[in-house]
């Protein structure tokens, strides 16, 4: 994992993200030589169907849990 400072990360964010996406490279971002964060590939399950991650729920949940509820689905006492 390559170490970079915050200024470098801020200045070259687009090219760093391209390296992460293309090569799977990771970067440790430091402030005054101390690590403060990482830039790395997203987990492989990011953006997938939530029911695919937990297949045991697939038969029990018959809706998309990430879809917002419309007004008619809210309980009366919460309106």
Please supply descriptive tags for the structure shown above.
three-stranded mixed beta sheet, alpha+beta, 79 residues, elongated
Overview of this protein structure:
By secondary structure, the protein is of the alpha+beta class. It has one domain: YefM-like domain (YefM-like fold, 3-Layer(aba) Sandwich), CATH 3.40.1620.10. It contains three helices and three strands; from the N terminus they run βααββα. The protein has helices spanning 6-11, 13-23, 50-53; strands at 2-5, 27-31, 34-39. A three-stranded mixed beta sheet has the order 1-2-3. β2 and β3 (34-39) form a beta hairpin. The chain is elongated. It starts with a strand and ends in a 26-residue tail after the last helix.
In short, what is this structure?
The chain has a single domain (1-65), classed as YefM-like domain (YefM-like fold), CATH 3.40.1620.10. The protein is 27% helix and 19% strand.
CATH topology call: YefM-like fold
The coarse overall form would be: elongated
Summarize the helix and strand pattern as letters.
EHHEEH
Structural category: alpha+beta
Number of discrete domains: 1
CATH class placement: Alpha Beta
Q: By CATH's scheme, which homologous superfamily applies?
A: YefM-like domain
How many beta strands in the DSSP annotation? 3
Largest sheet: 3 strands, mixed
Beta-strand content: 15-25%
Could you give the order of strands across the largest sheet? Answer: 1-2-3
Poorly predicted runs: none
Number of helices: 3
Distance between the termini: 50 Å
Task: Give the rounded overall mean pLDDT.
Answer: 83
CATH architecture: 3-Layer(aba) Sandwich
Give the % helix.
25-40%
Radius of gyration using CA atoms only? 20 Å
């Amino acid at each position: 994992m390559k170490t970079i400072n915050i200024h470098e990360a801020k200045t070259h964010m687009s090219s760093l993200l391209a390296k992460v996406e293309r090569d799977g490279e990771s970067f440790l971002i430091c402030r005054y030589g101390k690590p403060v964060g990482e830039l790395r590939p997203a987990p492989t399950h990011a953006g997938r169907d939530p029911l695919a991650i937990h297949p045991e729920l697939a038969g029990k949940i018959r809706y998309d849990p990430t879809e917002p509820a419309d007004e008619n689905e809210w309980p009366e006492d919460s309106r």
